[in-house]
Amino acid sequence: MNRRDFLKGLLSTSYVVISGASVLAPLSALAKSAARINDDWLTTGSHFGAFKIKRKNGVIDQVKPFDSDKYPTDMINGIRGLVYNPSRVRYPMVRLDFLLKGHQSDTTKRGDFRFVRVTWDKALGLFKDSLDQIQTNYGPSALHAGQTGWRATGQLHSSTSHMQRAVGMHGNFVKKIGDYSTGAGQTILPYILGSTEVYAQGTSWPLILEQSKTIILWANDPYKNLQVGWNAETHEAYEYLAQLKQLVKAGKIRVISIDPVATKTQNYLGCEQIYVNPQTDVPLMLAIAHELYTNDLHDKEFIEGYSLGFERFVPYLMGTDDGVEKTAKWAAAITGVNEEVIKDLAATMAGGRTQMLMGWCIQRQQHGEQPYWMAAVLATMLGQIGLPGGGISYGHHYSGIGVPSSGAAAPGGFPRNLDEGKKPLFDNNDFKGASKTIPVARWIDAILEPGKVIDANGAKVTYPDIKMMVFSGNNPWNHHQDRNRMKLAFQKLECVVTVDINWTATCRFSDIVLPACTTLERNDIDIYGSYANRGLLAMQKMVEPLFDSLSDFEIFTRFAALLGREKEYTRGMTEFDWLKKLYNDCKSANDGKFKMPEFEQFWQDGYVHFGKGKVWTRHADFRADPEINPLGTPSGLIEIFSRKIDRYNYDDCKGHPMWMEKSERSHGGPGSDKYPVWMQSCHPDKRLHSQMCESQEYRETYTVKGREPVYLNPVDAQDRGIKDGDIVRVFNDRGQLLAGAVVSDHFPRGVIRIEEGAWYGPVGDDGSVAGGANIGAICSYGDPNTLTQDIGTSKLAQACSAYTCLVNYEKFRGKVPSVSSFNGPIEVKL
Amino acid sequence: MRWLINLWKTLNKPAQYLTLGAVSVTAFLMGVIFWGGFNTVLEATNTEEFCISCHSMQSKPYQELQKTVHWSNHSGVRATCPDCHVPHNWSRKIARKIEASSDVWGWLFNTVNTSEKFEDKRLEMATREWGRFERDDSLACKGCHDYKSMKWDSMSKLAQKQMKRAAERDQSCVDCHKGIAHTLPDIGTARAPELIAEVGTGPSKFDDNAIYFSSLTKPIYLNERTDVEAGTLNIATKVTILATKGSRIKIAIAGWRKKMGAGRVVYLDFGINMLLVQLEKFAALEDGVIVGFEQKEDDLTGLKWQRVEVEVWTDADYLIDQQQPLWDYARTTFRSSCSVCHSQPDEAHFDANTWPGMFQGMIAFVDMDQDTQALVQKYLQQHSSTFVKEKH
Fold first, then answer.
1. Would you say A372 and A188 are in contact if contact means Cβ atoms under 8 Å apart?
2. A654: closest CA among A315, A362, A417, A412?
3. Which residue among A161, A302, B160, B277 is least crowded, i.e. fewest CB within 10 A of its CB?
4. Cβ contacts of residue A378 below 8 Å, gap of 6+?
């Protein structure tokens, strides 16, 4: 059969599909025939990039980067292990005591990891019965199915959409607002710069490389973080970083990394570093502002024409209102940055085109709104907002922001909401006076203190009394803070349902666990490059779903069938019908602008290319005409002083940015006498949050004695008698964990790093897996959120504050327990 | 020339030997033969085979038709070219045939024989067909689709609302349903085609003092003649008709502006950043275009605002008599587009002045044309906590 014949065959097959009565059969035949022809290298994509896969005897054998990916991530070596690893959820399983006693189960045993295998019918039946009970006994305020996360890529099988559509057909539930990554930033910046900024397209890299004289990387590590993206990542930004490296080397651009640690980006670029004490970025920024102001280096015309409230900020800067002038000398004492260095930095930033590139870490701390607001004030004073290579960006380390966009339309997804006019089975909207939407990071508070009223973003939020949680493709037992507090909260829940690929810690603390298959076990479609929109990617099924796992589409179609609403759920369409629909809708949206072949041809090719994009400057339109192109702030201008926030009368977020001491801070700050070390829990270098930690062989390339690495300063380590490769116990009043020492002079004294996403693996004092249910149990692998504190950033954003965390550590001398994170539950047979 | 003159003389002579009957019968028979032949040819040109016998019809419109529901559907009924493009009424059919003789010209001179040429002409050809449909109230559609036989219950709520309204006025189908059998031309109407398909382009005649709402963001002018744009009227903006001259209408918009710059941006209400009109500087400064009234300071920003009335001209199109269809469309778009990555927030979760910032901050992830973006943003503002008080 030659290619031409094959294509003809495809066309006739698809004709049958359109006109024939049986839709399912020819489509699966199509999938199979396409797969057979393509048997050498099939295309697919993931958060980690696009790649080609070769199978051998029905098993994934080799993975290589997609042809156009010139800078593939090292994590490509972990892809195979995403499918084949001991953490996979193989069968639907139910927690032993829940299976026996249902909603009256002993919840203190939650987390003892004893599970019983059941059939899909049984598991889905229990799921539905639980929802019935909750809606009947308490109503929608008792169900939280809105806590969603990073899922796996693919527009059709996107796990949260499926779960929320299906559960939404049953009844209403509590939802979240915001996210853990950028909670403070996305809340404060609309008041200041008129948009969330964190997720907005930024000035194109080519313009930055061409125009910037100085680039400030403020708590920003793009070289590490650009490895992954919300959709299939193209890694094109690395080309620009490579060019930047050359420009730094040639002395054409000065890059300054302001950070307590020498980041991966700094080491790659070979750029300068200004060390700053953890959590003291605001004093440093204030001192730079003070330098600009007192040396008349600020752009008065820009401030006058494009911003509001500078005059109400100056008294604070000059200390006329609080008696403290924010001088370089004042800041030096807090930040650990030499007075002269601050003055030089201010002069450098004002001395030419300066692009500030902010990372997200510094807004994931108490008062995390302040550094973002203050940085915007600095950028306003420099007057370069809206100029190519100048101004401020809050996203150039994320999902390829700054890579010019093709401008093509991306495919939509499987609908998350009920279809127009449809009602849930339990059509009850009585939330009993509680809020339907709560700030994302405050759900544990709500479970522990139902009915409590808190301030949030200018409104009052009343915590609902949550009795049941449903998660899908989401691992809050990674990204939420303070594990032991979470355990307390989960003991109050009657039922927890989790749909996942792997036995995450969230599964461990659930009652019903349903196995989803990986992206490589189903067909899907994705945009290539979240912001670049470089092309359209076929995600072709490589192998049949392993064990009893099913695709998200299949799981919730079956669930919908229990409600008698299967047809409504799928709209009578199969997986392939949906893929064609998503593709064809995208094709018509691009009609006349971007050429797309027929679906069958696309599926055969695996890819549609949309071409290169055009360069673009953020806020250039605002700069050109602020009247016609106002910002989305109340005034339409940059708000250095926000009367709106001022009127909220919050004590922890006032009318202008200011320095506020933290509840705990290292280097002489509060609590540092007891716990002297600041723990940084940044986004991982070799995972996407907790995704890929389960990929065993790949994990073993970086673990230390099977534990997550803890990066230690050489002098600090020596003081504690710790050598590289030792097992270390890290602890504070909130918890304790074991991790493997990596001693490195990239880390200053008083600072350690444990990357978030390390799987929680609690064990009892006796080292038992079941003992992991106990409050205070040690984490055997090294999850940093065992130690972090669960407080809001402020009354404004109420976002997470993982970076406000002090700890201490010592060489672990006890009996070393086995790691309990990765081998699934203790299976109990009834 | 002699034979011609002879023939004329013969024909001009009254019949000497033939009876009147014979003459009549012969004439009748000749008429039958001629008429039969004419009709045969007419019918032959009324078949799909004839239509697609020319390459340009076969390669474009025919191919496009085959992808639509008019070609293949559950019931197996198929619409062929003449079903839609040849009027069923005899006199109109003949008129159409005479009109269509220009197609022969086109065929002879290769007017649309390449894809590029076809695309260049597509708008012109489509406009001609749309005009014809509009003139006879989409009679060709109504041969199969009857408002009276529609089963309202099986339609979505939105469809019901739209269709019932159309049925009441026996509206021409193509007013809304353009581009259903062939690809839509890439033109002005291709701006937000789905939106326009839902809400329509509005009437072409307007009563003075009546209220209308813009269904697209429209250019505005300082008089009925000029082509110099004086600014834009934002989508879903309420206007009052003051006068009609030719294809232009004079409209009035009431709102508030910030007293900053040239004061050329008009918003819905005091302190509320919901866009109505943006004027070019020259237009804003022109006497009588913006009439200012009382001023107030907005306590939340310290900016002065002024109540104003704007009088400008705009083309007599894309103005519809109700605002609700625009909101219905925006609501559906918001809920589907903004729930691909996360659950969309409730409309009333933010106030009217916060929504632009939230919406603009996420827009990079969403495929919406400019008009739809502007509409969805305005929808969110209109249904924000500023106007809708409910616990959320």
1. yes
2. A315
3. B160
4. A285, A288, A289, A292, A349, A356, A392
Gap between the Cα atoms of A404 and B349, Å rounded = 33
User: Which of B302, B353, B364 is the closest to A200 by Cβ?
Assistant: B364
Look at the pTM and tell me if it is higher than 0.90.
no
CA distance A445 to A461: 12
Residue A314, CA distances (Å) to A43, A294, A326, A392, A498 in order: 57, 11, 10, 21, 52
Domains of chain B: 52-185 (1.10.3820), 186-202+322-392 (no CATH), 204-320 (no CATH)
- Alpha carbon distance A38, A602 (integer Å): 13
- Residues of chain A with Cβ-Cβ distance to B356 below 8 Å are 194, 632
Which residues in chain A have their CB less than 8 angstroms from residue B343's CB?
Answer: 146, 148, 160, 164, 175-176, 416
Q: Is the pLDDT of residue A575 over 70?
A: yes
**DSSP string spanning A699-756?**
HTTT-BTTB-EEEE-HHHHHHTT--TT-EEEEEETTEEEEEEEEE-TTS-TTEEE--T
Query: Do B336 and A201 count as a contact with CB atoms less than 8 A apart?
Result: no
The answer to whether residue A26 scores a pLDDT higher than 70 is no
* Residues A653/A369, Cβ–Cβ less than 8 Å: yes
pLDDT interval class at A576 (50, 70, 90): very high
Min Cα–Cα distance to chain A from B367, Å: 5
Query: Is a pLDDT exceeding 70 seen at residue B234?
Result: yes
CB contact under 8 A, A417 and B186: no
Q: Which residue has the higher pLDDT, B148 or A826?
A: A826
Cα A554 to Cα A172, A231, A525, B44, distances in angstroms: 22, 22, 16, 53
Instruction: Say which residues have a Cβ less than 8 Å from residue A663's Cβ, sequence separation at least 6.
Output: A366, A670, A671, A789, A791, A804
**Banded pLDDT at A16 (limits 50, 70, 90):** very low
Shortest distance between the Cα of A172 and any Cα of chain B, in A, equals: 13
Label the pairing between strands A468-472 and A453-456: unpaired
Residues A468 and A721: beta-carbon distance below 8 Å:
no
Query: Which of B160, B340, B370, B388 best tests the A interface by mutation, with the highest count of A CBs <10 A?
Result: B340
Cα–Cα dist A706/A779, whole Å: 13
A249 contacts A270 by C-beta, under 8 angstroms:
yes
Closest CA to A760 of A740, A737, A776: A737
**Distance from the A510 Cα atom to the nearest Cα atom in chain B, whole angstroms:** 23
- Asked if residues A184 and A601 have their Cβ atoms less than 8 Å apart, the reply is no
Query: What letter would DSSP give residue A103?
Result: G
Whether the pLDDT of residue B120 is over 80: the answer is no
Nearest CA in chain A to B299: A643
User: CA-CA distance, A530 to A514, in Å (whole number)?
Assistant: 29
Contact (CB, 8 A) for A255 and A269? yes
Three-state DSSP at B231 gives strand
Per the CB < 8 A criterion, the answer to whether A537 and A550 are in contact is no
Q: What is the pLDDT of residue A39?
A: 63
The rounded distance, in Å, linking the Cα atoms of A466 and A452 is: 12
Distance from CA of A533 to the nearest CA of B (A): 10
Type of residue numbered B63: Q
Residues facing residue A43 across a β-bridge: A52
| Distance of alpha carbon B328 from alpha carbon B324, whole angstroms | 6
Mean pLDDT value of segment A274-299: 98
Q: How far is CA B282 from CA A628, B225, B249, B292, in A?
A: 14, 17, 21, 16
- Give which of B355, B362, B392, B372 is closest to B268, Cα–Cα: B355
Cα distance from N-terminal residue to C-terminal residue, chain B = 97
Token pair of B283 as six digits: 């237009």
Q: Which residue is it, tokens 């005059």?
A: A311
Token output for B327:
């909101």
B222 contacts: CB under 8 Å, gap ≥ 6: B228, B230, B283, B286, B289, B312, B313
